[in-house]
Amino acid sequence: xxxxxxxxxxxxxxxxxxxxxxxxxxxxxxxxxxxxxxxxxxxxxxxxxxxxxxxxxxxxxxxxxxxxxxxxxxxxxxxxxxxxxxxxxxxxxxxxxxxxxxxxxxxxxxxxxxxxxxxxxxxxxxxxxxxxxxxxxxxxxxxxxxxxxxxxxxxxxxxxxxxxxxxxxxxxxxxxxxxxxxxxxxxxxxxxxxxxxxxxxxxxxxxxxxxxxxxxxxxxxxxxxxxxxxxxxxxxxxxxxxxxxxxxxxxxxxxxxxxxxxxxxxxxxxxxxxxxxxxxxxxxxxxxxxxxxxxxxxxxxxxxxxxxxxxxxxxxxxxxxxxxxxxxxxxxxxxxxxxxxxxxxxxxxxxxxxxxxxxxxxxxxxxxxxxxxxxxxxxxxxxxxxxxxxxxxxxxx
Length: 397
Hints:
Elements: H1 2-43, E1 67-72, H2 85-106, E2 110-114, H3 126-139, E3 147-151, H4 154-157, H5 165-175, E4 181-185, E5 188-192, H6 204-223, E6 246-248, H7 269-272, H8 285-295, E7 299-302, E8 309-313, E9 317-321, E10 334-340, E11 345-351, H9 355-376, H10 383-396
Parallel strand pairs: 1-2, 2-3, 5-6, 6-7, 7-9
Antiparallel strand pairs: 1-10, 4-5, 8-9, 10-11
């Protein structure tokens, strides 16, 4: 009798533990997929673009000479003033997993971040700045085979009226950034611009920045002089590869609005026809003309608007506006993958997981979990039991 009672007690307990284990496995599987595996599933589908020249690529421009670059913008790491801890935790985890997954799967040679790395760099105290930098270095840590280059944005040092030499120097010290800096990789020239300092009002930071850009413009122009038309003014100038530069900056050059922009990650319809403000949304027409005149770039890459757009300046110079990398600014963040040579480039967009789809998976999993629990405690009659009862009543009649 005792043995029988013991068996009756043990069986329901064992059944409950088994059900609980199944629930734990189900919840764990959903969490692992939504917070880890989904980034691999989505980014694995991205491919480096082939060069436009394809089979006609010269011997010098073999696959080994193609620079593989990832370009992203506007990470906006939240600060201590406006950043809620839960929002920080969620957004930073999303960006860290996306970035590290992209590095592991795509193995780029170089990564460019086009400004607004921080959300509150313009206000940060020294302590808050140090904490933000620490978190950034953890999230965007690169292996030795990948170089990380960061351009300054208005949220890093403030808009022009908030920008100070102290904030600029603080950013430059951490990221080794200087406006008017030239980076040459595999014979490709990249020009880094502090677009916040292109106000044109003669402020101390603006004067220094523009002087460096003018000097760099002279150096690049000398590099493209033909030998039989050599300029005496270039005789003492350092020799650099004769490759038309690619301009990297935070503010876009001047254009009227996003009205002509297309694509699923372009600005929302209600924002497209809003005119851009010079020196706030885009550079002034004067500053834009200066940069085009000084460098005659073959490509311009910028951020700031948080939306994608492609604009053709002077009928020949393409500018690509890179969308925000943060889910706080977009439901569908992305980054640009570029295959670049000294004479050519090809760009491809890689989307990250849509946040709405992740929430949909969580909601569906939560609903299924509730149904399973209710069915287990017999508060919800399973469909086949319900059908069986109907059949039994029909037979009884």
